Amino acid sequence: MNYNPDEPPRRGRPRRVSDDERRRTIVKAAHEAFVEQGFARTTTAIIAARARVSKRSIYEFFDDKTELFAAVIQGNRHLILDLPRPAEEELPMLDTLVRIFRLDIDEQAEREREAILNLIARESTQFPDLSDYLYENNILRAREELIEWLLVQARQGRMVVDDPLVHAGMLMDIVFGALLPRRRLANRSERVMRIDHIKKRLAIFLRGIRTEDQR
């Protein structure tokens, strides 16, 4: 068959999009919509338009908007907490906590984390049932994961843990309380200072519970 350069190229078959890819596109669109407009104002029609799919396509993967919201949080859990830790990890305790709470991420990831934390805090306050759904379905279990990690450290003799629930709560207050500012940080230097202050507070916490590093 001879090639004719004057003939327009024939179009091939349109690329088939996998179910996994469609689902990721929908979750990404939902994430953007929830952050910008909130849970109440975001509709499946808005999400479908952003994802360039039909509403029917959304319901092929998700029963309702609550399940879709949970998928958004689930997909961003890595920005909130990095647990469990590698079994062979032998870092100083402060360095381990820095990694657990993702205090070493770059600025772009830091902004993404700030957005997801604000989304969780805002929508959980306005919609308690939504918060209950996230906890009941193990989407949010930072406290439980921290408790499990603390108990492992105690069993290994690296930390004295009198009350793991209280200790986990203190760690969450130290870190997440600082990562949810009352005002938007103006520049990079303020973000660097915030992380530095969190690390100093974690160091004070560790001195108070007698870690192996200080023995």
TrEMBL record:
Domain of life per record: Bacteria
Q: Which residues bind DNA?
A: 43-62
Q: Where is this region: Disordered?
A: 1-22
HTH tetR-type domain location: 20-80
What keywords are annotated for this sequence in UniProt? DNA-binding
N-terminal signal peptide = none
The family database entries (InterPro entries) matched by this protein are listed as: DNA-bd_HTH_TetR-type_CS, Homeodomain-like_sf, HTH-type_TetR-like_transc_reg, HTH_TetR, TetR_C_Proteobacteria
Full protein name: DNA-binding transcriptional regulator, AcrR family
For this UniProt entry, the molecular function terms from Gene Ontology, in alphabetical order, are:
DNA-binding transcription factor activity; transcription cis-regulatory region binding
PANTHER family listed in its UniProt record: HTH-TYPE TRANSCRIPTIONAL REGULATOR PKSA, HTH-TYPE TRANSCRIPTIONAL REGULATOR RUTR
